Amino acid sequence: MSYRVDQELKAANHDLQSAEAELNELIQQLRNFEAVVDTRLGSLLDQLSDLNAETSSLDAKLRHIREERLFGTDLMRYLDGAPRPARSPSLTGLPPVGLPHRNAIHGTVDNPLTSPDVNIPDIKVLYRKLARRYHPDLARSDADRTSSNEQMTEINRAYNAGDLPALMRLAGMSIPYGVDLRQPALQPAKPHNEPLSELEQIERKLKALRQQSTRVSSLPIVKLSLEVKLARHQGRDLLREMAADLQYKIARKLAERDYLRSQIQASGNTE
Hints:
The chain is mainly alpha-helical. The protein is built from nine helices and no strands. Helix 1 runs antiparallel to helix 2 and helix 1 runs parallel beside helix 7. It is elongated. The termini are far apart.
């Protein structure tokens, strides 16, 4: 090995180690903050999501009862085959209450790029993490809320399709090189006709690490963590303010749910 190649390898390895350390620190900070959010807001977010799903279901049931009374059961059979109006845009981005069973690859949730072994996240665990990370009620502005709803639409679509690679990309995770997640079992991809040199392999890993760092840095939960820090310097507890806002929304949703229940009960439908 020539002196020049040896120096390039040393420099590339140094850059790779620095990028790995930077990404690991960023991921650890993100996990720590997500744990704080989960502790202080998690139960409120889950309760609000459940209420959103329940009120949506009750509203659909009440509309069905009213249409049946208006048009009759025979016409309703015809109408049942027609497309229904879309749900309110404010609800489409919310995660569903129950997660359907998926035949998925199981493994530990880890950073696949920095682990010596290939660790593939469980699709259900990853979905729950993403659903919490992009929950619309964590958004601090209308633009962020719109973005979160759009992300949740993509997350739900990928989860319902059982598309683990898509969920990993949405989570800012890179798929380990040489692993094909589309196959039922993990099988190494066919080798290239011309194997990559050691320097090329390092450069490819470095590029993937930097891309992942960029994706993680752009997550809305990271933006929220910065806003929480800024509010703390201003003497405010932003998470406490958000908890109060969530409690207000929950109270409104509870009133809406009780009203819908009373309307259904008044219609004589007790199913």
